[in-house]
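Protocol step 4 of 6: structure prediction from sequence.
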Amino acid sequence: MKCRVCREPAVIDIRRHNANFCSDHFMRYCRDQATKTIKEFEMAHQGDRLLVAVSGGKDSLALWDILLELGWDVDGLYVGLGIGDYSDVSGDYVRSFFEAFAEPRGAKLIEVDLRATHGYDVPTASVATGRTPCSACGLSKRHLFDAAARDGAYDVLLTGHNLDDEAAVLYGNVMRWQVDYLARQRPMLAAGNGFPKKAKPLVRLSERETAAYCVLRGIDYQVDECPMAVGNRHLEYKNALGAAEEASPGMKQAFYFGYLREAVDLFATRPAPEGEAGEANTSLIPCDTCGSPTNGDPSGAATCAFCRLSQRSAAAEPVPVELLKTRRR
């Protein structure tokens, strides 16, 4: 197996492109794919200050490294979610990466601890509010990511979602015709209504490719899945699409980018779900508690979904992640 660029021995094959790469040209390929995506969707411009949300996993750490390699002014944001040992280990990976790869290149790491700043963690919020753990986690992260980007005056907030992630989300939204979410199924969302600009530069890279990038760069990352994700439909959708991709390489890329090309604009006027960016949401008002944009709550008060969740969760007794895992069996 030879590298398609230099004909030296290849270390990875990318079946959907019918291509093989050596280590150096594979890493160049990853950076080129990110650059292509940033330019095509106008995610950022030279001089912008970027903030990348890092979890300790391969995707977000690869993204931070790629952006630094490309010369962007990009800092990292880590949110401690209080998911037992999993969160402790994830934080350690983020700090290790920062010390070895980011700090020497002048980047900063912002850390936010959910329990220290808001008095609750994800397992407790799940039980206190009746939300699934992934729902409580997603709502909390979106709020804290947006707040950090606004408070730090960053021009763009970036996440490490890859092609597998986006294709699986699209698949689930189409299967259930979640048209409000289909309207937002874009790799870049413009700033507006108090929300920062958001972008996903890795949507042309697969999960396998971001893992290979980290291995070749010597980046250690959290391998284990979040223990709260057991039974999550997103993982089932990934597995289903993975089987289809194995049988027909390139299917996921054709599915996702075909949707962006042919269909996403058909849903453009749909309002975004509460607490998420969306140009169609023109009637948002500031939350009375935190100032974030909101539709208000069912009682008519100007209280955002995050503050409602935070108030109920902070008043509850802490729930160990082990207890929540037992309840879900």
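Step 5 (inspection) to follow. Residues 84-102 form the longest helix (19 residues).
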